[in-house]
Known about the structure:
- This protein is an alpha+beta fold.
- It is built from eleven helices and 14 strands.
- The site of alpha-D-mannopyranose has 7 residues, from loops.
Amino acid sequence: xxxxxxxxxxxxxxxxxxxxxxxxxxxxxxxxxxxxxxxxxxxxxxxxxxxxxxxxxxxxxxxxxxxxxxxxxxxxxxxxxxxxxxxxxxxxxxxxxxxxxxxxxxxxxxxxxxxxxxxxxxxxxxxxxxxxxxxxxxxxxxxxxxxxxxxxxxxxxxxxxxxxxxxxxxxxxxxxxxxxxxxxxxxxxxxxxxxxxxxxxxxxxxxxxxxxxxxxxxxxxxxxxxxxxxxxxxxxxxxxxxxxxxxxxxxxxxxxxxxxxxxxxxxxxxxxxxxxxxxxxxxxxxxxxxxxxxxxxxxxxxxxxxxxxxxxxxxxxxxxxxxxxxxxxxxxxxxxxxxxxxxxxxxxxxxxxxxxxxxxxxxxxxxxxxxxxxxxxxxxxxxxxxxxxxxxxxxxxxxxxxxxxxxxxxxxxxxxxxxxxxxxxxxxxxxxxxxxxxxxxxxxxxxxxxxxxxxxxxxxxxxxxxxxxxxxxxxxxxxxxxxxxxxxxxxxxxxxxxxxxxxxxxxxxxxxxxxxxxxxxxxxxxx
Length: 527
Ligand code: MAN
């Protein structure tokens, strides 16, 4: 493991000395580059531009354009000085800082002329670094263990779901077939039901019309009597002209022409039959009924219901009609529930007379259709239930739960962080939100869209996009950085740019490598 190697190196270098190199290395040169500086052998500048005698290395005169002949003096402006820093970590400083009277390297090697007295602080610094490394190691070790458990849980969950999918697949197919069969059965049962109900409802509409016509005729006869002022069983032109409401041009008299236009034909005299069918329908809108004190109000006559087509049959069958009447209540009419949109229309007339119950034969068909509908609904629900389960499983299996499914336990969880103004919520694989501390509604900062890499780590960030649109700005979005930590915790939330949010989330699931500080390239080069 990388961290183990690092610890070994720190321990080793803390008790080593400059003498570990088999050949002396010029001042300011790293061990890895030591082989380019061989005593007695001409030195070639590391950029290959020039060869010089070995003696000219560190002679305080800059020969090489790349400054590599003067690693241990300040002669070259672009020179680099390598601090060995045994016990701590090596460091490279600009060679202009060599012998400038300031201690730059913790081992004091940059002040070799001893213009200042540099204390070697490498061991001390190495110690605190080792402690820090040890703490990191422990954290990573603990995190690793939890991560392994997470991975196991994730793999197990996936295996279970996959197994479930194998059994649910055929179930679904069988349920679908059954559902389709019952749907066909339902449609077949609904057809005769609809026809039979339609027959009864059409009959009832016809009855309604007859009732209306009957009522209208009674009214017409009443008006006829009112207009026939001389009682000769005829309404004459003169009698009509006596009604001031027919004075359409308001000139104070009712002309023959006004009556002709109103009635639609020239009229001299109209008997009751002609009046009811021809004159009354034309004048009814203009005719002013006498006030209630003057004349008896016109009432609807009681109309005897005509037996329905099937009732007529029933009578011939000798069945007791009273039973039907006694049976009839609102439930009879509402039997079809919401499906019977037509029923409502046919149920009420001007006087809110209810439609008589459907005949027995029709009700039998309705019962059969009801049973078929119920059977279908049950089968449909059963199918949908299994179908939904399958869809949920497929959605779950399509989730990218990270390497070895380590992020599985974060699914279905939410984590919060509160700063001075807002409480931020992070629900991995789902959404990120923000809620003002002072109350008010939650603002969606985005829904999970993808993972994004952080350097080598493919699962460095979770990206949340297409949140609530920012006024005069972009849609809100959030970037959640995954950091190795002992616990799952939203440790920070910020808004570095308006409506662009940045969260830190610590989790053992992210404990897969050393944190950035220990990934120092220089440190590795020197191992
Ligand atoms: C709200 C919050 C803030 C955001 C502003 C933008 O107040 O969502 O985070 O900066 O709207 O108007």
